[in-house]
């Protein structure tokens, strides 16, 4: 199986800008909250859920087409739904925004059905230092291309992390697709 699949220019720079601006115009939530306790050692970022921003509905439309094509080309998974809102994350240097090693498959009803994770790099690489998205599909760690608008797709069970942002701000878009259990 391909450990991950890259789609260059999944979003244009203007689309990345538009999406960031929409999220800046809405209140973002602290991502460090897990069951009412703060878990900032695991993740320090601010989040927008695009389902809360009607003007951002084009994002899901675009991603559905893109993911269907990429899944056929690279993974061949049985995918049936997008059960969760797309999420935009902001990782700022002011508190060393990061997300430690994790898999996206969780124990919750919906998180347990995640199959493919899609992340789009929304920021210009010149706008931040650190903030590297790393995947660990095997014993090797791979750095994901930073070019703005690049989408990376990987099976949701693959371990990944975002290293601390040390300068500037990194923005990303994340979505998950869902389906029946792997077999
Ligand atoms: O911001 C990223 O690049 C990754 C986000 C992520 O891993 C997640 O939301 O589960
Ligand atoms: Fe993740």
TrEMBL record:
<dbReference type="GO" id="GO:0004656">
    <property type="term" value="F:procollagen-proline 4-dioxygenase activity"/>
</dbReference>
<keyword id="KW-0560">Oxidoreductase</keyword>
<feature type="domain" description="Fe2OG dioxygenase">
    <location>
        <begin position="82"/>
        <end position="179"/>
    </location>
</feature>
<dbReference type="InterPro" id="IPR045054">
    <property type="entry name" value="P4HA-like"/>
</dbReference>
<keyword id="KW-0223">Dioxygenase</keyword>
<dbReference type="InterPro" id="IPR006620">
    <property type="entry name" value="Pro_4_hyd_alph"/>
</dbReference>
<dbReference type="GO" id="GO:0005506">
    <property type="term" value="F:iron ion binding"/>
</dbReference>
<dbReference type="InterPro" id="IPR005123">
    <property type="entry name" value="Oxoglu/Fe-dep_dioxygenase_dom"/>
</dbReference>
<keyword id="KW-0408">Iron</keyword>
<protein>
    <submittedName>
        <fullName>2OG-Fe(II) oxygenase</fullName>
    </submittedName>
</protein>
<keyword id="KW-0847">Vitamin C</keyword>
<dbReference type="GO" id="GO:0031418">
    <property type="term" value="F:L-ascorbic acid binding"/>
</dbReference>
<dbReference type="Pfam" id="PF13640">
    <property type="entry name" value="2OG-FeII_Oxy_3"/>
</dbReference>
<keyword id="KW-0479">Metal-binding</keyword>
<dbReference type="InterPro" id="IPR044862">
    <property type="entry name" value="Pro_4_hyd_alph_FE2OG_OXY"/>
</dbReference>
